[in-house]
Amino acid sequence: MKLVILAGGFGTRISEESVFKPKPMIEIGEKPILWHIMKEAACFGINDFIVCAGYKQHVIKEWFADYFLHTSDVTFDFTKGQDDIIVHNKHIEKWRVTVVDTGLNTMTGGRIKRIKEYIGNEPFMLTYGDAVCDVNIKEVIEFHKAHGKMGTMTMYNFGQNKGVVEANKEGIIQAFREKSDFDGDLINIGYMVFQPEIFDYIDGDMITFEKEPLNRLVAEKELVGYIHKGYWQCMDTLREKNQIEDKWNSGRAPWKIWED
């Protein structure tokens, strides 16, 4: 199964970094968060990726074009009057990566529509290029196959990040308590699986996938939710980026399920 990664937005809420590069290329532990997403997916046998690029899409293409330079020791030998490059200890991922320029101002639905030719007539997984998690991708795919509907969406209870005040309908405070996993709403965290017919639900570039297409699936009772109860963290702000990096630097990153 192919994994489609949405990676074309402007990342305006983390402009401290996204002014220089697309948000999925912001580094966690000296590797783009996009790399982290792909490494986790590969642990479940997904090695065929389609990256929906847009803003500064050349940065993504150039990073993969120079992958060996980013991940290996390199000797630049000029002694023969030419620029011989020797790559040592090549670390080769078993990946096939298709980076598609889906347009600068295209909405999420339009980006997905534009990669139809690279999918073919088969189901595919879709996720966002700005979050890390320990979602069991194999279970999500099996769940999708079992229910037989058009789409599966992975959901997560992000909860509250503050203490909670309980009050009655008159506004009288009843109690203070610590936050709980039941205080938040379920949110869409990506890792969606769709049948190829989903492309028929997208009319053009200016369609927001999370609105018209998904709402139509809901109306037709063709979208099923898979609840993830492990770790998930998006990277919308610099503060969140630092939280993720702290996890990585501590050696306790929940999404790092691969061996070095």
Description:
The chain is an alpha/beta fold and 260 residues long. Helix content is 27%, strand content 27%. It is built from nine helices and 16 strands. Strands 1, 4, 7, 8, 10, 13, 14 and 15 form an eight-stranded mixed β-sheet that branches. A two-stranded antiparallel sheet has the order 2-3. It has a two-stranded antiparallel sheet with strand order 5-6. The chain is globular, with a radius of gyration of 21 Å.
Strand segment tally: 16
Which structural class fits the helix and strand makeup? alpha/beta
Mean pLDDT: 91
Strand-residue proportion: 25-35%
Global morphology? globular
The largest sheet, given as strand count, sense and whether it forms a barrel, is: 8 strands, mixed
Which regions are unreliable across 5 or more consecutive residues at pLDDT < 50?
A: none
Task: Work out the helicity level.
Answer: 25-40%
- The gyration radius over C-alpha positions equals 21 Å
- What's the number of helices? 9
SSE series: EHEEHEHHEEEHHEEHEEEEEHEEH
What's the assembly state of these chains? single chain
Distance between the termini: 24 Å
TL;DR of this structure?
With 260 residues, the protein is α/β, with parallel strands linked by helices. It has helices spanning 15-18, 33-42, 57-65, 67-71, 108-114, 116-119, 137-147, 212-219, 238-249, and strands spanning 2-7, 27-28, 31-32, 48-53, 73-77, 84-88, 96-101, 124-128, 131-133, 151-157, 164-167, 173-177, 186-188, 192-194, 223-228, 232-234. The strands form five sheets. Strands 1, 4, 7, 8, 10, 13, 14 and 15 form an eight-stranded mixed sheet that branches. A two-stranded antiparallel ribbon has the order 2-3.
